[in-house]
Every structure is written in structure tokens, then in C-alpha cells.
Design brief:
175 residues; mainly alpha; Fumarate Reductase Cytochrome B subunit; two-stranded antiparallel sheet; 2 strands; 68% helix; binds protoporphyrin IX containing FE
């Protein structure tokens, strides 16, 4: 069967919703640890709720991805770039699991119970300050890697959309 030229609607919708969610989580995360203003606690509470939603969203995204027929890169894209694109996609999936999971486990290990819209969420770890430190470090380093990957991804998307005009950018935008 021929490969489609564009991503299915479900994947395009989840891609752009998650892009907005993750960028705002990164922005909130970096802002709230830089300041001790009175709004910090409120932003942190919002960050945790949206972070748990991001965890659910990445599970849904992976399921949709595994069940979808996705477009192949054009043959004009050099093999090294095709490999880089595959590694970037893989890196995104890994980091989009590591980010919310490390945040979740960090809170468990700190002994701070989590809830989502009043519904208590399961505690997966006992309170352990050493583990808290480990997941806190992991959360910070994964955020840094995620920012680097996002910059590379945006530059590659702009290169395809504005310079190569080979349909790669369009495949995630419209039918
Ligand atoms: C995709 C999801 C997430 C992203 C992109 C994200 C991003 C970030 C970033 C960039 C920081 C600042 C890190 C630093 O400067 O070292 C941060 C801090 C934090 N995040 Fe997340 N986060 C996510 C999910 C979560 C979740 C699910 C939780 C908990 C339920 C959480 C809890 C926290 C907490 C408590 C901090 C502050 C840590 C501290 O300063 O002690 N995050 N996050």
C-alpha cells in the first residue's frame, strides 16, 4: 500500500496541542524556579496538573502513532538527515515520558501527594529524600535536553518549509 503524504488528522491535532502544552510547561517550569514571588505556588500547582495531563497525552499519542500510517520522508532527503530525523523523533518520545514521570516520582519521593481535579493519584514511591534529589536532577537535565531537541526540530521544520519546500513541513499542517 502507498504511504500517505500527510499525517492523519488525529496525529496533527495531538502534535500541535502537545507542542503548546510542553512549551508552556517548560516556560512555567523555568520561570517558577527562578522566582520566589507569591504567584510561584500557584504556577507550580498548575504545572503539576498540566504535567500529569502531559503524561496521559503522551500515552495517547504513542497509541495513535503505533496505529497510524505515517508519511515517509521524500527520497530527496539525504540518508544522514533521514537517520537524524528518526533519532530526533525517538528522543522526543523518550523525553516526553521522562519529563512527566520524573516530575511525578519526584513529588512522590518528596512525600507530596498528587491529585488531578480533586481525584487522588496513586503514590508509586515511599518518601525518600535521596530519590527525590535523583528525580529532581533528572527533571532538570531532561528539560535541558528537551529544549535542545525542540530548537533542532524547529530549525529542521523551517528548513523544509521555507528552503526545501518538499512537503515535509506541510505533512504536519494540513491534508
Ligand atoms: C512534559 C511535562 C513536564 C515538563 C516539560 C516540565 C518542565 C519543568 C521544568 C523546565 C522545570 C524547571 C527545572 C529546572 O530548572 O531545573 C520543572 C520543575 C518542576 N516540575 Fe516539571 N515538567 C513536566 C512535568 C511535571 C510533572 C508531571 C510534575 C509533578 C506532578 C512536575 C513537577 C515539577 C516541580 C515540583 C518542579 C520544581 C522543582 C523544584 O524546583 O524543586 N513537572 N519542570
Amino acid at each position: 500500500m502507498n504511504k500517505p503524504h500527510t499525517y492523519p488528522l488525529s496525529m496533527r491535532v495531538v502534535h500541535w496541542l502537545m507542542a503548546a502544552l510542553v512549551l508552556s510547561l517548560l516556560f512555567a517550569g523555568l520561570t517558577m524556579v527562578k522566582s520566589l514571588g507569591p504567584w510561584q505556588q500557584q504556577l507550580l500547582a498548575w504545572h503539576k496538573v498540566m504535567g500529569v495531563i502531559a503524561l496521559l497525552a503522551i500515552v495517547i499519542r504513542l497509541i495513535i502513532r503505533l496505529r497510524s500510517e505515517t508519511p515517509k520522508l521524500p527520497d530527496t532527503v539525504p540518508k544522514m538527515q533521514q537517520l537524524a530525523a528518526k533519532l530526533t523523533q525517538f528522543g522526543f518520545y523518550v523525553l516526553l515520558f521522562v519529563m512527566p514521570l520524573s516530575g511525578y516520582l519526584m513529588q512522590n519521593a518528596a512525600g507530596r501527594p498528587l491529585s488531578l481535579f480533586g481525584l487522588p493519584l496513586p503514590t508509586l514511591l515511599n518518601t525518600d529524600l535521596a530519590l527525590y534529589g535523583l528525580f529532581r536532577e533528572m527533571h532538570g537535565w531532561a528539560a535541558l535536553l528537551l529544549v535542545l531537541l525542540i530548537v533542532v526540530h524547529i530549525l529542521a521544520a523551517l528548513y523544509h518549509g521555507l528552503i526545501q519546500r518538499d512537503g515535509v513541513f506541510r505533512s504536519m499542517v494540513r491534508k
